[in-house]
Amino acid sequence: MSLRKKAVRGLLWTGSGNVVSGMLNFSIVALLAHFLSPADFGLMGMVLLVIGFITMISDFGLGTAVIQEELFTASQVSTFFYVNLILGVILGALVYCLAPLISSFFKNTELATLLHLIAIVFLLSGIGSTFRTILQKEMRFAALSVTELSGIATYGIVSITLAILGYGVKSLVYGVIIRQFIEVSILWFIVRYRLTSFFRLTEIRHLLRFGTFVLGERILNYLNRNIDYLLIGKFLGTELLGYYTLAYQIILVPISRVAQVVGKVTYPVFSKVQNEPEKMQDGYIIMLKYIALITFPFVAVLFVVAPEFIHSVYGKNWDATISVLQIFCLYGAIESIGTTVGGVLYAKNRADIAFSYNIINVAIVASAVSIGLHYGIIGVATSLTSVSLPLTYLWQRKTNLLIRLSWRSFFNTLSFALVVSVILLPSIYMIKLLGRAYFYNNDMGILLISFGSAIIIYILTIGALKRSLIIEVKTIFSHVNS
After folding, report:
1. Helix, strand, coil percent content, the chain, rounded in steps of 5
2. Residue 62 — pLDDT band, cuts 50, 70, 90?
3. How many CB atoms lie within 10 A of CB 142?
4. In the chain, what is the straight-line distance between the N-terminal and C-terminal CA atoms, in Å?
5. Class of residue 480 by CB neighbours under 10 A (exposed 0-12, middle 13-18, buried 19+)
6. Pairwise CA distance, residues 469 & 454, whole Å
7. In terms of domains, do 218 and 193 share one?
């Protein structure tokens, strides 16, 4: 099968899997919001800060280096497995021992108990990391999608059941643990890995330099993306962090997942054509165009119907989330473009650039969040949004140079998605006003008619102004099925 077909099939599998997983996540959070308090969500946000950080550094960047490597032998796989296993044990023990200190930082005694419980996740994550890397390198995205969907479904069943039974925030922690166990079991079965005793660090020593830069970039990127959680949890408390966390999950998590879907497929593809800038440029333009066509119209519609969305899905006790969500709509649109550059930098073996630029990001974002804290969670969201555009420009400028992409071509690629969004904004606002007059205070009715109208307008706009796009999609599918 050609590289193009593998890439498109990978996008189809990963994309459809993420649509389903996104819907499952949305449904799970919506149900849990009726059984758990904002403070519970805020407390879990603190736990996820620790999980996210430890999981991110769990393979020390070697997984990304493995994918970039052209050849990877059985002896290297065995060594890679044991390195991940050892790191998982060490990091799990570290979290368990540091739990009281972390709890003291956030001034929340319950956090220590939750971190003691969650420590086992890092051992499981260390084991699963090897198998995920192998499947991604081999572009077996169907297997990865099945694994993730199984894990999310398990998490939903366990968490919702325990929340109904009154376990509170522990229901989320137990859900995460069971999910990791199920995913690792499925991954091991799919890869059919046969455990051997071979372990020699010299086998993967040459990957360490690249992996070190990846790890450094990940740590800085993690701080960049989570310093708001850290400071809100520290200075504003769990309840406000809960409202902020929900807004973040609604808008930024789905958008980052869209970018991750594309990045998960395009990174191994770009790695294979890393010495062919024209092919990389063509692939990057296609990636950018379709990400923008999904994310820009989505945030435009959500900005208009944010109040009805929150009231209908989560209830009126989550009103404090609405303004943050609307601010994050603009932030999410900008971030959806900024998240595309990492795969290019890694594929070009320039993790050092990503590392250097993230130093700048962390300094600016930390300053913005610190200023925003004086004005509550709305101030934090506004500050982050205000600095996101210049930071994205810095990233994009270097990426464009690496693949020889002009700014004119870059903006032309985004222009149609912006046109669709500009058409949707006033259209949905007028439909919402008409719906308010007809449905009175029925938020769900207004929400449904607004989203339904948005889909129709979106399709008609593409059909009227960009019929070539429909032909392009049909051509891609015909190549895959041929």
Report:
1. 85, 0, 15
2. low
3. 17
4. 11
5. middle
6. 19
7. no
| Same domain membership, residue 239 and residue 199 | no
- Whole-structure pTM over 0.85, yes or no? no
Domain identity same for 191 and 252? no
In the listed set 203, 231, 251, which residue is the last one of a domain according to the structure? Answer: 203
The pLDDT of residue 447 is above 80: yes
Handedness of CA 218, 227, 52, 106 (dihedral sign): positive
pLDDT of 481 higher than 70? no
313 shares its domain with 383: yes
Mean pLDDT, residues 246-270 taken together: 71
The 8-class DSSP code of residue 193 comes to P
- Whether 19 and 74 share a structural domain: yes
319 in the same domain as 418? yes
As a whole number of angstroms, the distance between CA 320 and CA 309 comes to 13
Q: How many folded domains does the chain comprise? A: 2
Using N-to-C axis directions, what is the helix angle for 277-313 and 321-338, rounded to 10°?
Answer: 170
Residue span of the structural domain in which 222 resides = 209-482
What span, in angstroms and rounded, lies between the C-alpha atoms of 257 and 358? 20
